Amino acid sequence: MTSAPESKAVPSEGESPGAVITIINEIIYSPINLLLTAIIALLLYKILKSRFGMVYMEPPVPELPKIRKDMTVAELRQYDGTQPDGRVLVAVNGWIFDVTRGRRFYGPGGPYAAFGGKDASRGLATFSVTSSDKEYDDLSDLNSLEMESVKEWEAQFREKYDLVGRLLKPGEEPINYSDEETEETDNSTNNTDKKEK
């Protein structure tokens, strides 16, 4: 049985200190050690970069003037994010929301682009990233759990995005909104809507 070679880090009698330094330099500067050091440095750089906010951030969406109007399904289709201003609107449970701030999700190329410029209610209710192809989807065939899901999505959209107006049923007339309207109008519209149901 052969024994393992002895370490040359400690000079033996008769060996010069310069020889020890040469051996240490050979160990430190070996190609494998240099490669491992480079990989570790790269990984540390990536960790520090992500921790201290030096990651790539998407440029902010330019502030667009607010839209306040009721729309038909055909009018809503125009706001899918492909027009020059990039505005994206989505309808949920009969209400239209301006989701332009979430364009990377709802705009062209986003994971939920199928909802951009469309009524997303059925897709959200059934957990399917598809929108309704109907001229107007009344959602009457959804079960109670699916309708509850749609209402929860509506509440989330109300918290996060600006309300534009109502999605009009065929033959329904739009409401003329004034520029001075406040949240009180939104609340009174919600109360009226609840009374109708």
Helix and strand layout, with pairings?
Blueprint: H1 17-28, H2 31-51, H3 73-76, E1 89-92, E2 95-98, H4 103-106, H5 121-125, H6 144-160, E3 162-166, H7 183-196
Antiparallel strand pairs: 1-2, 2-3
Could you explain the architecture of this structure?
This protein is mainly alpha-helical. The protein folds into two domains: 17-51; 73-177, Roll (Flavocytochrome B2, Chain A, domain 1). Helix content is 39%, strand content 7%. The chain is built from seven helices and three strands; from the N terminus they run αααββαααβα. Strands 1-2-3 form a three-stranded antiparallel beta sheet, with helices on one face. A hairpin with a 2-residue loop joins β1 (89-92) and β2 (95-98). The longest helix has 21 residues, at 31-51. It is elongated, with a radius of gyration of 31 Å. Mean pLDDT is 79; it is low at 181-197.
